[in-house]
Amino acid sequence: MKYLILGFCLLCSSLIQAQEKYSVRGTIKDFSNGETLLGATVFLKGTSNGAVTNEYGFFSLTAPKGSYTLIISYIGYESISQDIELNADQTLNFELKESATSLNEVVIVADEPEQVSIKKPQMSVSKLNAGTIKQMPAVLGEVDVIKSIQMLPGVTNNGEGSSGFNVRGGAVDQNLVLLDEAIIYNTSHFFGFFSVFNADAIKDIKLYKGDIPAKFGGRVSSVLDVRQKDGNNKDFNINGGIGLISSRLAVEGPIVKEKGSFLIAGRTSYAHFIMKGIDELKDDKISFYDLNLKTNYEINKNNRVYLSGYFGRDVFNISKILKNNYGNATANLRWNHIFNDKLFSNLSLIYSKYDYQIVLDFIELDWISDIKNYNIKYDFKYYLSDKVKLDFGVSGISYNLNPGEVRPTSDSSPVNYLKLDEKRAFEGGLYVSAEHQITDKLTAQYGLRYSAFSRLGGQNMTNYINNQPVVYNSQLGIYERGEEASETYFGKSESIQNYDGFEPRLGLSYQLNEVSSIKASFTKSTQYLHLLSNTSSVTPLDVWTPSGKYIKPQRSTQYAIGYYKNFKDNTYALELETYYKTIDNRIDYIDGSDLIGNNNIETEILNGEARAYGLEVLLRKNKGKFTGWLAYTLSKSEQRTLGGQAGGPGINKGNWYNTPYDRTHDISLTGIYKLNDKWSLSSNLVFQTGRPVTYPNGQYNYEGFSVATYSSRNEDRLAAYHRLDVSATYTPNNKPDNRWKGEWVFGIYNLYNRQNAASVTFTQNDQTGLNEATRLSIFGLIPSVTYNFKF
Amino acid sequence: MKTYIKGIALIIGFSFASCEDVIDVDVPTGQIRLVIEASLDWEKGTLGNNQTIKLSTSTPYFETEVIPVVTGASVKVVDMDTNQEYVFIDQNDGRYTISNFVPIIGNTYNLEVIYDNETFTATETLIAVPDFNSITQSTEGGFDDELLEVNVYFDDPADEDNYYLFSFYEPGDLFANVDNFSDEFLNGNEIYNFFEKEDDDDNDQAAFQPGDTVEISFYGISEQFYNFSSIIIEQYYGGGDPFSSTAAEARGNCINETNSDNYAYGYFRVTEVVKASYTFQ
C-alpha cells in the first residue's frame, strides 16, 4: 500500500505545472517491409523530451505548444529529422530505411539508442535482434536464440545437451519465456542441442535479468520476451536456408497492401529423410520441426488485430523399442486499440500447451503428460504527460496440468492403466507502473504488481500423519515419505489453497552527464508454478506442478545497481551491474526422490531457499568494421533447505550448497569483423568455471560391487569449460536487380577441439573391476556450412 | 520400470554426437566406516540354514588394495516373532557364519553387530517372492531385434505393494547385472523381465549365443531395501550423468546405537530368492 501512496504523490507533483500542451503519436515502421520497429526513439531536438516505441511500434509524445525538430532514430537505420509545428494533437507515422552499413552493425543495446538508454531507468535488460543472432557462430550452423543470449553477462546453461538457460544463478524454470506473449514451457529441441525459435520468424528478443517491468509476472529470475515478425506488408518475400541439420523456409507478404500481412515460417530437420533410405534405419525416426505463423490486419488507424501461432515438435522413434515425441503449441489473438492520442491498449487471448509422450514397446507402456493454459491479458499504456507514462493492466491465466497418464499398449501388456490426479489452478495479475521523469537528470520507474493464485479442486488431496508429507528419520539420518492419514476431496468449484503477492518494482536512473548514468532497481516477484526436476539438467520429461497445500510459491527479491557509459562518440558502451537476489520456497529434493508417475510429489520435496549475487561487465563496440562485445560475470549461486516441518537438519545437513548453475567466472567474447563487401567473419570465445558436481569420497564392497559413497552436494567441480567458435559469411556479387540474394555461412564450432566435460561418471570397469572416472564430452570440433537465400 | 522412462532420455540425447574417455580426477576422501553386508537370502527349495554376514570397512574411492575385512566383531540375529537367537561365528576372514538359521516368511528379524565397543542394529522382515511361471528366450523382445535375450515371467500378487530385485549373471563375467522394480504400474498382473547383452568392442563383451548360460536370481525385497538399492543402482550404472539425480549417499538400515554419527554402510536384508539357470538354444 505504501508504494501506491508514494507513487500517487510522485504523480501529482508532476501534474501541477499545467501548460498548453499537445501530443504527437504514431507508428514507426521499417521502410522496406513495413515491420513495426520496437524500441525506436522519437525525440524533440534540443529538449530532453522523448519517447520510445512500444512492442507494437507505437509512440506518443507530449510537449508544450511550439516549433520543434522531431528526430526519429533506430540503431541500424537512417535517422529521420522532421520539423513540426505543435499546435494541435497530431498523428505522424514514419518509415525508417535500413542504413547501408547495417549488416555489420551489432545491435545489442542496453536498450534504446544513446539519448535514452542512459536516461531510462530500465536496467538489467539486453536486446538482440535476429540479424545479430544470425551472424553469431552456431553449432552445426543452427542459428540459436537461446545459445546467443548465453554470450551475455549473467546468462549460462548447463552445457551442451541441456535444455534452457540460467539467469543470474536462477533455475531454468524461473525464466518466463514468451513467444508473442504465449508461455513456452520447453525452449529446446533435441534435448537442448537446438532452440525452438526459428530466427527467420523472429523480429527481436529482449531478456530482462532483473528490474522486471510490472507487466510481467509469474517467474522469479528473468523474462525472455521473443517477438515474431509481423510479415512484410509491402511485398512478397521468401527467405530460407539449407543447413546440415535443418532447413528453413519463410514466406511473407501483404494480405492487403500496407494494411495487413502474413508470415509463415517452417523449419525441419531432415535426418529422417535420409534414414528412410537406409534399410536398417527405415523404421526409425529422429526429427524436429517448427511452424510459425503470424498475420495482422489494420482495420483503421486506431484498430489493428494480430493472430500468431507456433507449433513445434521433436520425434524420436526407434523401431520396436520406443516412440517419443514432445513439443509446444501456442496461439495468440490480439487487438491493438488506440483510444486517443495518449491511451494505447492491447487485448490478448492466448493459449499454450506443452506435452510429452513416450511409448515403450518393450514393456508395452504409453506415457503422456501435459500442461496447458488459457490466458487473457488487457494492457494499457497511457502517455500522461511529457514527464509521466503509465502502464497498467490485468491478466488471468487458467492452468490445467496432467502430470502423467500411463496406458498399456496391448492386451498382453503387464501395465495397468493409471492416471495421476489432474491439477487445476488460476493465476490473476493486476499492475500499474509509471515511468516518471522527476528532474532533468533523475528518472524513476515505479510500479506495483499484485498477483493472486488459486489451486483449484477437482481432485483428492492426501493428508499426512502430523501433517508431515516428509519425515526425518533421526536414527538413519535420512528423509522418508510421510504416512498417509486420510484423503480430502475438493470439488471443482472449491479452491484447495490460495496465495497472493504484492510485487513492487522500482527503478531509478540518475544521469551523471550526457554519456553516463547510474541506475538502481528493486524487484519483488512471485512464481506459482514449479518444474519438478531432480537431475542436474532439466529434461523434456520433467513435469510442471502448481503451488498448493504443500508447495509454496517461490518469492524473489532482487537489488541491483549499475553504471553505464557511452564513449568515443558512442562507438563504445560500458555497462557495469551488480546484483543480489534471494528466492524463498525453492523446491529441493530429498535423497533418492522419485518424481516420475508420483501422485504425491510432496513426499519427495522440501521447501528451501536460494541466493545469488554477482558482478556483470559488458563492454560493447557498436560501430566500425569490427563490432562485438566482451562480457564478464563474477557470481555465486547457492541454495539451502532446512528440515522445517519435516524435522531434522535439512537437505545436505542444512548447509548452503552450490546450485548446479553456479559459475564463479564466466567470460564471453563475441566479435564480428566485416572484411569487405563479400566476406564477414565472426567468432565466439567462451570460458566458464566448471559446473558444480558431487564426486564420490569413498567406496565399499557390497554384494560384489564397489559402491561409491558421497558426502556434501555439489562440492566438486568439472574442469573449466572453454571453446572458440569461428564462422565466415560469404555474400557473392548479387546483381542489384536480381531478386535472388544468397549467402554462404561456413562455421567451425569448438575450433581447438576442446573436450569439455558434459559429465564425469564414476563406474567400475567390468573387465578389470577397477573404479574409473569417465568423461562424456558432447561436441568436439564441428564444421558446418549453411546456405541462406532471399527473394 | 521408471528407470526406463528416465534412462531413455539419456540414450537418445547423447547417442549422436558424443565421446567418452577415462580421465584422472582428484576425489575427496571421506570418513572410513564399517560396512555390514548382511544378506540373509533364503533360496526356495532349500532349508536356508546356512547364512553368511560379511563385515569390512570402506576405502578411498580409487583404492585398489584388497578389501579391509573386519574380524573380532560379535554378530547375532534374533527372530522377533519366535525370540530365537542366532549367533554368527567369526571365521576370521570378515565372514560370520551360521548353519542353523530358520527363515520364516513374514517374520521380523533383528541384527546386532558389536564392533569396537559400538553396537549396530537393524530390523527387517522376510519378504516372499513368487515363482517363475516360465523362462523363455527370444530375439524380438528386448532392445535389439537381432540379439538373444532371456525372458522371465511371474505373477505379481494383487492387493499389496511388491518390490523385486533381479540379478542376471553369465558365468565367466566379472559382474552380474542387477536391477530392481516395484509393481507400481503393474500390480496384480503377470510381469516379465528380460536381459539382453550387447556386443561391445571396447570391452569384448559379447551378446548371448546358443549354448551360453545365464544364472537368474529373483528376490522379494522390502520397500526400504528397494529405496536403498534404487539409489545404489542408479549411481552404479550412470552416476554423474546430466540426467541422473544429484549423487547422494545411500543410507542403509544399520543404526549405530552408541554413536549415531559413526553410522555403518551396507544393509541388513532378509529375503526369499528364486534361482534358475537358463541355457540358450
From TrEMBL, chain A:
Subcellular location: Cell outer membrane
UniProtKB keywords: Cell outer membrane, Membrane, Receptor, Signal, TonB box, Transmembrane, Transmembrane beta strand, Transport
Gene3D superfamilies: Carboxypeptidase-like, regulatory domain, TonB-dependent receptor, beta-barrel domain, TonB-dependent receptor, plug domain
Segments forming domain TonB-dependent receptor-like beta-barrel: 301-751
Domain of life (superkingdom): Bacteria
Topology term for the membrane: Multi-pass membrane protein
Segments forming domain TonB-dependent receptor plug: 124-219
Signal peptide (residue range): 1-18
Primary location group: membrane
Family label: Belongs to the TonB-dependent receptor family.
Protein name (database record): TonB-dependent receptor domain-containing protein
Species, as recorded: Psychroserpens luteus
Automatic annotation (TrEMBL), chain B:
Listed name of the protein: DUF4249 domain-containing protein
Species this chain originates from: Psychroserpens luteus
Organism phylogeny: Bacteria, Pseudomonadati, Bacteroidota, Flavobacteriia, Flavobacteriales
